[in-house]
Design a protein that fits this description.
Length: 140
Amino acid sequence: MIIDEIKKANMEALKEKDNSKRTAYSMLMNKYMLAGIELKAQGKEIGDTDMIGLIQKAVKELDEELEIYKKAGRAESVLDIENQKKAISVYLPQMMSKEEIKSEIEKLDDKSIGAVMKHFKANFAGKCDMRDVQEVLKNL
């Protein structure tokens, strides 16, 4: 599981005294624990798909934080946030290109918006941006 790899990377960052990576990995582990508690209350378990979603959300949060530091002119903080993003982005799968999305949509019999979105959520969760799917679908 992805979380196991993140825990190992966290230990390596601890040994290397890399505070940027430690911060990023600790944040992900905390998000994982919170999500696990919420899902357990619903009778479900957290999996790699959920973890990918957590990582994507964390990257977006770091992007927002990065913009704030850039506007404030805090170069040291900008560098720290960029290092955190690099550390956790490694665990994200390669995203599908718009061409790959288009070829997948063309294979489907039912090209209605609902059917296409349902297909991509079920089969490609975390591997494609749903906004890209919607955009490609509109352009067909």
